[in-house]
Amino acid sequence: QLQLAESGGGxxxxxxxxxxxxxxxxxxxxxxxxxxxxxxPGKEREGVSCISMNGGATKxxxxxxxxxxxxxxxxxxxxxxxxxxxxxxxxxxYYCAAGNRLRxxxxxxxxxxxxxxxxxxxxxxxxx
Length: 128
Fold this sequence. Notes:
Layout: E1 3-7, E2 10-13, E3 18-25, E4 34-39, E5 46-51, E6 58-60, E7 68-73, E8 78-83, E9 92-99, H1 106-109, E10 115-118, E11 122-127
Parallel strand pairs: 2-11
Antiparallel strand pairs: 1-3, 3-8, 4-5, 4-9, 5-6, 7-8, 9-10, 9-11
């Protein structure tokens, strides 16, 4: 069974950087599109970024474009999200999620649907 585990969250001042990692186990990472979502207190979950199975396609929310970068290493079963120029509005719990096995989700459906397996999340807090 596919399992996802996020790490790398923390407390940083505005303008700082963090690297979030998503470790995959139970199945080959190469079989799955992967996405990052976030949820702030009192707000709905929103899509942050996604990456296709082979890493050839990536997408970003407008609010993080040019500040965040998603990448993956299928051989070592990890996906990373580099967060730069962080703002207090980026404060949220960040989740990685996997699409369905061997089905595209990032390009055709993200962020509306297509990702159903989630990790437990990692907290990112950005202070003013």
